[in-house]
Every structure is written in C-alpha cells, then in structure tokens.
Amino acid sequence: MVPKYNPEIEYYCLEIKNTIMKYEVDERNKVKRVPNRGHYDRETIYKILDAGTICHVSFIHNNQPFIIPTLYGRHGDRIYMHGASSSRLIKNLEKGFPVALSVTHVDGLVLARSAFHHSMNYRSVVAFGTARLTAEGDKTEALKVISDQVIKGRWEETRLPNQKELKATSVLEFDIEQASAKIRTGGPSDDKPDYELDIWAGVLPINYTAGDPLEDELLKTDIPIPNSVKSYLSAFK
Q1: 231: which residues sit within 8 A by CB, 6+ positions away?
Q2: Contact (Cβ atoms closer than 8 angstroms) between residue 171 and residue 143
Q3: pLDDT at position 30, please?
Q4: Cα–Cα distance, 218 to 220 (Å, whole number)
Q5: SS3 for 27?
C-alpha cells in the first residue's frame, strides 16, 4: 500500500535535511562582504577543506591574538591537528578556548583595467568551534587522518609511531560548530568607461602541482617509488 502524500510531512523532512546539510548562520559566520559569494552547506565546505593540507588557527592568549599555520585532517564534522605537547598551540587550545580556523585556495589572479578592480579567484573556509585534546586511545587513528589528508596511503607504508613518539605528540580535535565558505570565480568587473581603455584584462590561472620525486641521499638501492607517491602524482596528470 502506497502511503498518502502529505505535503506537511514533506515540508518538515526538507527542513530537517536543510538543517543537517547546512551550518546555522548568524553574526559569527555570516559572509557580509559580497554575501552572494557565501556558502553554508557542508558539501561545499567539506570540498574546500579536503582540498587543503594547511590551516591557520587563531586564538587569544593573555589578551594577545595569535595565528598559527598547521597541518590538519578532516573526518566528518571534526578537524584534527597535531603538534609537540609543549607547543603554544597545544598548550592553549587544550584548555578549551574558542578557536577560528581558516583554509584558502587561490585559483587565479584577476587583472582588471583599473588598479581598483583587481582581484583574485579563490575558495576559502572559516570555521568556528572549540578544540580539545584527543583521547590517548584515539590518538593513532587521528594521526592517520592527518597523514591521509596530506598524502593518502603513506601511513600504511611507514614505520608507525612508537610509544615515545606518541607521548611527545598531542592531537587536538576541533568540532566544527559553524562555518562558512566564500568563493569567487570569473573575470574582472570594470567600470563601464574603462572597457574603452587599451589595457589588457583577464585572469591568470594559478594551479597547484607536484614535481618529480627526489630520492633521499641515504636511500637504499632498488627501493621503488611507493604507491602513495604514484597516486598523489597521478592526480596532477
């Protein structure tokens, strides 16, 4: 028996889906400058995060703002970061301070006819939340998440961390409470009179790539390039 269509149920189902798929928007994460470039859906935000390896983490310590670049890995709605147990980043964020985290990719230089209208094409995310130390029993898996973000498959090819190394390393987990993405694409937007000027305008694309692997000088002979490196390089072909 086919259930009777109920528009009210469908409406509430869509509302629940939108709530799950999008972050709540308020003054903290709302894009205010050129708001039509803002995105709040998890799919867009996850894609930008997954395309990166370095984030910039900002926090306040003793009334002094700090911003620190670090490697990261994403798993679901959680971002992992690691560092020496004695580092400023770890020592401060393990206390549960509010944190803002950003990731940016520059895709092109937008060269306009006027200096004022020069711009960039970019994809960026700013995320908000509170970090805490990852439990000791979950630390190894969290480090694998970070490793996979940088070069997938390398973790399985290496000697894994021993107890001494794990003790010297702390891992932070950052649950994304709110986030927003901002994306610019396309060419320059000049003032109408400037289109008559004899000045070149357009976009200079910028692409991230990888070069040929360079062997360690102390590498034993007859050790082939590992699959993780081959897979990484294949993504640029």
Answers
A1: 152, 153
A2: yes
A3: 95
A4: 6
A5: coil
Looking at residues 15-35, what average pLDDT do you find?
Answer: 82
Residues ≥6 apart with Cβ < 8 Å to 79:
49, 55, 72, 73, 101, 127, 173, 174, 176
Contacts of 85 (CB under 8 A, 6+ apart): 167, 168, 169, 170
pLDDT digits (tens, 9 = 90+) for 148-194: 999 999 999 999 999 999 999 999 999 999 999 999 999 999 999 99
Domains of the chain with CATH codes: 7-211+219-234 (2.30.110.10)
Tokens 């306009």 map to which residue? 112
Beta-strand pair 78-84/98-111 = unpaired
Residue 209 identity (one-letter amino acid): T
